[in-house]
Amino acid sequence: MLLRGGTSKGAYFVADDLPSAPDARDDLLLRIMGSPDPAQIDGLGGAHPLTSKVAIVSRSTEPGVDIDYLFLQIGVDQPTVSDAQTCGNLLAGVGPFAVERGLWSPDPERTTVRIRLINTGDLAIETFPTPHGRVDYDGTAAIDGVPGTAAGIRIELGGRALLPTGAAADEIDGHTVTLVDNGMPVVLLRADEFGVSGDESADELEGRTALREAVERIRLIAGPRMGRGDVAEATVPKMFLLSPPRHGGAISTRAFIPARVHTSIGVLMAASVAAGIQIPGAVGADIADIGADGPYGIEHPGGIFPADVAVHRGADGTWTATSTSLRTARKIFDGVVFPRPRL
């Protein structure tokens, strides 16, 4: 099934319909998505990382969990399949897809599904409308980066430690950075230190070779510090340039993900940014417009993402967070895909 989840689009599969061996599975998915090819002309991919994604869904055998969700990022112009991160946007479509495929029984009006994010081990609680026991994608909820409206999907996550190094700020390559993970590993940077005002388009930033190289140098050092090892071939951590808000939000962002600049923002990226800027001493905390309560508007090239994130500091000094987000999803196509015969 092809679904839009949040501001991404991906192919959703029942796990039993794919090969169990990772090598065989990845080979098949590359042929289905049309990679490697910048245009992905011979497959389902949309020639951009945001539209070259796969969700693999199954019933869970874990106590207290209903559904397991494995996210795979499919390379566009490279034959890569990565499970190094999860995707909070495609997560929005996991509950509806599980109901559509008979992996979970819906309730008469609204259905709640406990979903384990296999990539990270986090647990998401997802609630969405199922009037008369059928998924309803129509509704009045609007999210920036997606035209029109659709049914609102509520996603709750929480409980993880936020700072992989234990510090609100670190020094990397001559820059003060904050390394934070609230479901997505991100690095927070001051945009003005890189000659970025914060209102540039994604295309403009992608065209600055020196900027891309400077951000990538920091990312390669940050990865091991965040427990990710060598991230040269990985798509995490995501790199965020922060600047003061311009449109009534809490902070303005431009995100390298990492080679391309995000045209909007991912769910878990927004949750990580919103958590980070609430920690005293973190990058962005001094320029953010933080009120007493959330949600916190995370400004991005496509609009504003309302991130409802609350941070807490334990007696041992550890910062944790709980977050709730509103997403939408839409079923686009349900049918049979024919992979090309060989890479």
Task: Give an overview of the whole structure.
The protein is an alpha+beta fold and 343 residues long. The protein folds into 2 domains: 2-160 and 327-333, Diaminopimelate Epimerase, Chain A, domain 1 (Roll), CATH 3.10.310.10; 170-317, Diaminopimelate Epimerase, Chain A, domain 1 (Roll), CATH 3.10.310. Helix content is 17%, strand content 32%. The chain has helices at residues 22-33, 88-100, 202-206, 209-225, 267-276, and strands spanning 2-5, 8-14, 53-59, 67-74, 81-82, 110-117, 123-129, 153-161, 170-172, 175-181, 185-190, 238-243, 251-256, 296-300, 303-313, 319-327, 329-333. It has a 17-stranded mixed β-sheet that branches. A hairpin with a 5-residue loop joins strand 6 (110-117) and strand 7 (123-129). The longest helix has 17 residues, at 209-225. The protein is globular. The model has no long low-confidence stretch (mean pLDDT 96).
